[in-house]
Task: structure prediction
Amino acid sequence: MNFTQVIVLSVLIILANVAWNKFLYKKDSTVDVTQVLNSSSDELNNGSNRVASTTVILSILAIIPLLSGLYFVNAWFNDYNMANDSVNWESCPGRILSKNVVNFRSSGVTNHQSSGLLYIPEIEYAFKYKNQTYKASQIDLLNEPAHGDKSKSQTVIDSFPEAGESVTVYYSPKYDKSVLITGSKKTNYLGVLGGGMFFIIGLICIKLLFRYLSS
Result:
């Protein structure tokens, strides 16, 4: 994530925290002092041990989805930012080596069930950069997701020249990556939505943990 995205995410977390404290959580500040004073030291020690064990378990359960969500959100934003930056990559002369639609069958589907097939556009190409020849197969930084409809993947394949013909390749020596399609116009947002969901679950678990400790 870049600096602006980190700031936006931080502001959203702060706003979510304020909303939680104002609308969802009203702490009961009433404490039964008499009950506390009458409790034996053994009961208090046993209670403290149980609280400590529960706190450790809850902390682990909260941190795992929080860190997982943050990792996937950060990875998605890195790919998205790189896709945006790819419009400024250097153009290089290239040549199509091969292109076709690759299909594979998802797990648990028998050979008689065509609905389990997924189709992926695959293009192999070569290009020259500073008198060196490179081979690659990445179409864009969004990795052209698999389709259950073969015609959609075939449309991507048909939009490029035939094998042996010239094509413009965009290359970044900084990232050591090349693509045939630049930009982030067809970005798939499932990654950030899934990572964001895990991140939110982690935040909720953290809030519940603090609520438990303060009760």
Residues 109-114 have pLDDT under 50 and may be disordered. The helical segments are 3-24, 33-38, 41-85, 150-158, 190-214.
